[in-house]
Amino acid sequence: MVTFKQIELVGFKSFADKTVIPFTDGVTCIVGPNGCGKSNVADAIRWVLGEQSAKMMRGSQMLDVIFNGTEKRRPTSFCEVTLSFDNTSRIFDIDCDEVEMTRRLYRNGDSEYLLNRQPSRMKVLTALLHGAGAAKEGYSIIGQGRIEMIMNAKPEDRRSIFEEATGISIYKERKADAERKLAAARDNLYVFLQRMHEVERQLGPAEKAAESAIKYEELYGRLRTLEINSYIYHHDTSAERKKKITDKIEAFSAEIERLTKRSQDVLEEYERCRDGVNGADDELAELNERILRYTVGIKEKTGEGKVLQEKANSVKEKLRAAQEDITFSSQRIDEIEREIRRAEDYNAKNSERAEKLAAACRAAEEELASISAEIGQFEAMTDENRKKVMDTFRDLSDLNKNMGSIEAQRELLNERLAEVEGTLAEITALRDGYKAEYDASIAKHGELTAFLSSETETMERATAAVRTCEENISSCTRRAYDARSQIASLNDSLATVKALRDRFEGYIYSVRRLMTDAKAYPEISSKIQGMIADIVTTSGDYEVAIETAFGGAMQNIVTRTRDDAKFLIEHLKRTRGGQVTFLPVEALAPRTEGPSIRSAIKEKGAIGFAVDLVEYDKKFDNVIRYLLGNTLVCDDIESATQIARRYPRAFKIVTLDGDVINSSGSMTGGSRKDNAGNLLANERRIKEIEESIADKKAALTRAENMGEKARAELEKCSAELEELRGRFQSSRTELAANEQLSESLIKQLSSEESRLTVYAQTADMIRSRLAALDDKYSETTRGASDLNERSTEASSAIENITTQYDALSKRRDEKLEELNSSRVEKASLEAAVKSGKENAERLRGEKEDLIKRIASTRAAIPDIERELEELNRQAEHSALTAEEQAVVDDLRAKLKQTTENKTALNERIKQIDIERLDLHKSIQELKDRVSSQQIALTKLDADLENMQQRIMDEYGEDYDGCLKYKTDDFEIEGAASQVTSLKRQITMLGAINPNAVAEYKEVKERYDKMASDKADMEKAIDDLNVALDEIRQEMLNIFNDGFSKINENFKQTFKELFGGGRAELELDYTDCEDPLDAGVEIVACPPGKKLTKISLLSGGERALTAIAILFAIIGMRPMPFCVLDEIEAALDEANVGRYAKYLKKFSTETQFIVITHRKPTMENADTLFGVTMEEKGVSKIVSVKLSEVEARLGGDTVM
Questions:
Q1: H or E element, residue 9
Q2: Strand pairing of 4-10 and 614-615?
Q3: Which residues does residue 118 pair with via DSSP β-bridges, in sequence order?
Q4: Distance separating the N- and C-terminal Cα atoms of the chain
Q5: 92 φ, ψ (degrees, to nearest 5)
Q6: Mean predicted confidence (pLDDT) in 1086-1094
Q7: Which residues pair with residue 606 across a beta bridge?
Q8: Which of 279-293, 949-963, 1024-1038, 1174-1188 has the highest mean pLDDT?
Q9: Which of 150, 442, 673, 745 is the S-S candidate for 1106 at Cβ 3.0 to 4.6 Å?
Q10: What DSSP letter does each residue of 229-245 carry, written as one string?
C-alpha cells in the first residue's frame, strides 16, 4: 500500500516551477547527472520534516532554499513544498484518509506551516511525524555521510548512531538536562549554605540584641508609667501641698507672734525685777542709813572716821555702779545703731536685688514665650521640608528603578553582544578551518595513503593528548569554579565583618552614637584619636587575653588633650548621647612594671608583659601603659594561680582563655560564648579575609591561566588530531568520495560565511540598541542628578532648621533654668528682707529702753551725791544705847532679808536673760523655717514645671496626654526609688538598638526561609538523583533491548548482502565506568576471510557492512518510507547488485525513494524519474527509460 504518495515543489532551490513527483509502492529511483538538482528532492523532504539548520540544507541561511533566479529568470518571492501521505491505515494520529503537510517560506523571513491546506504549527507536524516514526532525527532520510560515520567513527562515537536508532537520544537530552540541573543545584546549594551560615552567625547576636531591646521597651514603659504617674500625682496634689506649706507658714507665723508676745512679757518681768533690785538697793541704803544713825556712838568709840568712810564707800560704790550702767547702756546703744544701719543696708540691697530678679523673671517669661513660639514655627517648617525630601526620594527611587531596568537591559544586550561576538569568532575559526581542511584535501591526497600504515600510533598519541588536555581543562574549570565560589563566600563574609565594624557593633550605644556623629562631622572626628581597638593590634593567640586585660577600657575613646575630651563630653550632653569615658593622652600617667612582675616573667607559664604583646603607635604609649602596665599574661589559669600565690596582690594576671586574677586578689573567669564579641579581632578578620580573597584570586588566575594554556594545547592537539583524522579519512576514500568531501567542504564554507554575515548583522543591531539605551540612560542620569540636587538642598535646609531648632531648645532650657533659679533666689531675698526688718524693729525697741534707763540712772545720781554729803554731816553722832542696839539688830536683820531678796531678784534677772535669749533663738528659728517653707513653696512650682518639661521632652506628652497613662493603683511611696532602679537597669542593658526586634525578626524569617529553601533544595537534589537513576536505567534497558534486536538483524542482513560470512556488534566496555558510555565495535568476517574489525576491511566491504547495519536498524524500526541519497556510491558493481536486490526485497515493508547513479539500483527500481536542467539553473522531472539514462548519463556512470 502506498504511504508516501507524492511531493510537490514550488520555487524550492533549483525547482523554480511547480513540480510534482508521484511515488508508488516499492523502490522509486531519482537519477540525473551531477549538479542537476536531484539531491534537492531529499532536501525538500528533510525541510518539510522540520529541519531548521541551514547547514543541513547545504546553505548559509534558510532563505537560500528559495529559488534565487538565473540569467533568464527572476528570483521567486517564496518557496513551498507539500508532502502527501495516504492515511487510510491511520499511520498519522489524525482522522483523515489523506494527509498533506506543507511548509512555506517567504523572502522577508516569514514562514508558514499548513496541515491539509489549513494553517498549523511546526510542532503539530513534527508530533504527527514522530508518532508515525518518520521524524527527521530518525532514519527516514539516509545520506552518504551516515554511511561514512558508521565506517570511520571511533567505537565511542559510533555509539551515538545506535542510541539514535534505539530511540534513547531524547533520553540522553533528558539525562544531560538532569545532570546540568543536578550540578547547578549542588552549586546553588553550596553557595546557599555559605550564605545561610552567614545568616546563622548573625542570628545569635541579633536574638540577644532583640531580647535587650524588648527588655528595654518593658523597662522604658514602666519608667514612663512611673514618671508620668508621678507627674500627674504632683500636678494633682500641688494645690494641696501648697496649702500644707501655707498652713505651716501661718502656723510658724502664729508661733512667732506668740513667742514675741511672750518675749514682751518676759521683758516687762525683767523691768519689774530691775525695779525690784533698784527698790532693794534703796531699801538697803535706807536701812544702812538708819543703822548708821544708831551706830554713830559706836563710831566714836571705835573710830568715827572709819564708820563714816565705810558708809561713804558704799554710797560711792552705788554711784560707780550707776555710772557704769550708763556707760554700758551708751555702748549698747551705739552697737544697736550700727546693727540697725547694717540691717537697713542689707535690706536695701536685698530689696534692690529682689526687684531686679522680679524684672528678670518677667523678661525671662516673655523670652520663653517667644522662644516657644519660634520652636513651634521651626517644627512646622521641619515637617514641611521632610515631606519635600521624602517626595524627592520617591521620585529619585522611581528614577533609580528605571535606571536599574535600563542597566539590566544594557547588561543583557552586552552579554548577548559578547555571545554573538564569541559565535562570530567561532564561525570565523570554523570557516578558516574549513578552508585549511579543503586545501589540505586537495594538496595532500597522495600523502595520506602512506600515512595510514605508519601514523596509527601518532593518532593514538594525539587522541590521548586531546583527552589529557580535556581532563586538564575540566580540572582547571573545577578549580576556577571552586575559587569563584570561595571568593563569593569570602566577599560576603568580608562585607558582613566590615558592616559590623562600620556600625561599631560590640560597643555601647553612646560610643556608637559618638563615632557615628564623628563620621558626619569633621569637627568631632578631629578631636578623636581612635578607640582602643583602632590603635592596638596583637596576634590572634593573644586577642582574648589582651581584650580581657583592657576590660571596660575597650569601650573608651582616646583623645589628644583634656580640652578635646571636654568638647566631646559637652557634645554628648547637648545631644543627650549618653556617657563615654575618654582617655586624654597628655593627662594619663603610664604604669610601670614593678620588680615583682619582672621576676614573675621568668615563672613557668608566664608568656610576657601585656604591654609587650601589643603593637601601637608610640604616641599612645601613655594610654597603653596606663591600661596594660603591671599586667602579666599567662598560658592558663593553673599557671596564673601559682604565680599569684608566689607574688600575692602584686600585679594583675590574665590568661589566654580570658581568666583574670586582679591585683586585689579577686578572680574572674569561666566559659566564654562562641559568639562573644572580640573587638580586637575585627581588623584581623578583615585582613585575613582580604588575604584569603587575594590568595583565592591568585589561585583563580593560576587556574584560568592553566586553563587557557590547556585550551591552547587542546586546540593545538585537536587541530593535529583533526588533521590526522582528515588525512586518514581522505586516504581511505576513493576519488568520488574525495570529490564529494571537497564539495561538502565548499558548501560548509559557504554556510559559515552566511552565518558570519547573519551574526555580524545581529551584532550591529545589538550595538545600535545599546547606543539607544546609553542615550536613554544618560537622560535618566541627568534627571537623577537634578533630583539629587533638590534632595541635597532640602536636606541642607532641614539641617539648618534643625541646627536653629537645637539652638532655640538649648536657649529655652537655659532660660527655664535661669528663671527657676531667679524665682528661688527672689523668694529667699524677700524672706531675708522681712526678717531684717523685724530684727531692726526689735533693736529699735531695745535702744529706746536703754535710753530711758540711762535717763533714769542719770536722774538718780544727784540724789546719791547729796546722800554722800549728808553722810559727811552725820559724822558727829553719839554712841547707841541697848535699846538702840536692839533696833540696830532688827535693822540689820531687815538688811539681811532685803539683801537676800535682791540676790533672788538678780538670779531671776539671770533666768529672764536666758529665757529672752532662748525666745530670740526660737523666734529666729521659726523665721528661718518660714523662709525655708517659702523657698519650698517656690521650689514646688519650679519642680512641677521642670517635671512637666521633662515629660514633654522625653515622652512628648502634656498633662491631658499623660492622663491616658494614669493607673488607679499608683502609690507615690517608693516611686522615686523604683524610677532610680529602672534607670539603673536600663543603664546596665548598655547600648540598645531600637530596630533590633525588627532586625532579628527579619534575620529569623530569612533563616527560617533559608532552612525551608535548603530542605527544598536538598529534596530537589534527591529527586534529581532518583530521576537521573531512573533515566539511566530506562536508557540502559531500551538501548540493550534495541541493540540486541539490531545485532540479530545485522547478522542476518550481513549474510544476505555478502552472500555468506558472519558479523556481529559488540559493546566495548574498555576504560568505561558507565555502561551508557560503552563504545560499539563492528566485527565482520566476509566469506573466505578471518573475523576482524571493520577498520581492517576494504573500502567497499566497510561500505557494504555499514549498509547492512542501516538495513538492520530499519528492520528493527520499520518506517513508512525511507529516502536513500547515494549510499551505494562506494560499492563495486557486484556489491551494488546485492544491495539493489536486498533493497528490492526490503521494499515490501518500507517505501524507498532512492537517489542514485548506479545501474543495478536503477534496474531493481519500480519507478524511475530523471532530473535534468534543460534550462541552466532550473531543474525538471522527466520520466525515463534505463537506456535513456545510459545515453544521458553515459555508460561509465550507469554501471
A1: strand 4-10
A2: unpaired
A3: 115
A4: 31
A5: -100, 145
A6: 76
A7: 634
A8: 1024-1038
A9: 150
A10: HHHHHHHHHHHHHHHHH
Q: HSE-up of 1162 (CA within 13 Å, CB side)? A: 23
Instruction: Say if CB 1031 and CB 174 are below 8 A apart.
Output: yes
Q: Summarize the confidence of residues 841-846 as an average pLDDT.
A: 73
CB atoms closer than 10 angstroms to residue 1179? 25
Q: Could you give the CA distance from residue 1074 to residue 300 in angstroms, rounded to a whole number?
A: 170
Cell triple for 722: 583533526
Question: CB-side exposure of 751: number of CA atoms within 13 Å?
Answer: 17
Kindly give, in sequence order, each residue whose CB lies less than 8 Å from that of residue 141, ignoring residues fewer than 6 positions away: 42, 45, 46, 49, 1122, 1123, 1125
Chain centroid to CA 956: how far? 32
In terms of Cβ atoms closer than 10 Å to its own Cβ (0-12, 13-18, 19+), residue 231 is: buried
DSSP for 1150-1182, please give it. Answer: SEEEEE---HHHHHT-SEEEEEEEEETTEEEEE
- Residue whose C-alpha cell reads 540712772 in the numeric block: 857
Alpha-carbon distance of 612 to 568, in angstroms, equals 31
How remote is the C-alpha of 302 from its chain's centroid? 127
> Alpha helix (H) ranges present in 444-455?
447-454
Please write the tens of the pLDDT for every residue from 916-958.
778 877 887 888 788 788 878 777 887 888 888 878 877 888 8
Closest CA to 550 of 535, 528, 569: 535
Q: What is the DSSP letter of 401?
A: H
The backbone region for 962, taken as left when phi is positive above 0, alpha when psi lies in -120 to 50, beta otherwise, is alpha
Residue 1029 CA to its chain's centroid (Å): 41
∠ CA 493-497-501 to the nearest 5 degrees? 165
Rg (CA), the chain: 62
- What are 569's three cell numbers? 563630653
Residue count (the chain): 1199
**Amino acid sitting at position 202:** Q
What one-character DSSP code corresponds to residue 66? B
Q: Output the CA torsion sign for 188, 191, 196, 202.
A: negative
Question: Cβ(341)–Cβ(333) under 8 Å?
Answer: no
User: What is the rounded distance in angstroms from the CA atom of residue 654 to the CA atom of residue 1010?
Assistant: 41
- Residue whose grid cell is 532550473: 1178
Task: Pick 823 or 536 by higher pLDDT.
Answer: 536
- What would the pLDDT profile of 967-1006 be if each residue is shown by its tens digit? 888 888 888 888 888 878 887 777 677 788 888 888 888 8
Query: Can you tell me which residue has the cell 535600563?
Result: 406
- Burial label for 385, CB within 10 Å (0-12, 13-18, 19+), is buried
Describe the chain by its helix, strand, coil percentages, rounded to 5.
Answer: 70, 10, 20
For cell 546540568, name the residue.
Answer: 180
Q: Say how far apart CA 774 and CA 411 lie, in whole Å.
A: 11
Question: Could you give the CA distance from residue 197 to residue 190 in angstroms, rounded to a whole number?
Answer: 11
Q: What is the pLDDT of residue 384?
A: 54
Residue type, position 78, single letter: F
Distance of CA 802 to the CA centre of its chain: 29
What's the one-letter identity of residue 335?
Answer: E
Calculate the dihedral angle through the C-alpha atoms of 939, 943, 949, 952, rounding to the nearest 10 degrees: -150
> What's residue 138's pLDDT?
63
**pLDDT of the residue at 539:** 83
Q: Model pTM greater than 0.85?
A: no
User: DSSP character for 61?
Assistant: S
Sign of the dihedral defined by the CA atoms of residues 678, 680, 686, 692, in that order: negative
CA distance 454 to 1096: 15
More confident residue, 806 or 519: 519
Q: Is the pLDDT of residue 204 over 80?
A: yes
Phi-psi label, residue 729: left if phi above 0, alpha if psi -120 to 50, beta otherwise: alpha
pLDDT by residue (tens digit) across 441-482?
666 555 555 555 565 667 677 777 877 877 787 678 777 767
What is the CB neighbour count within 10 angstroms for residue 722? 15
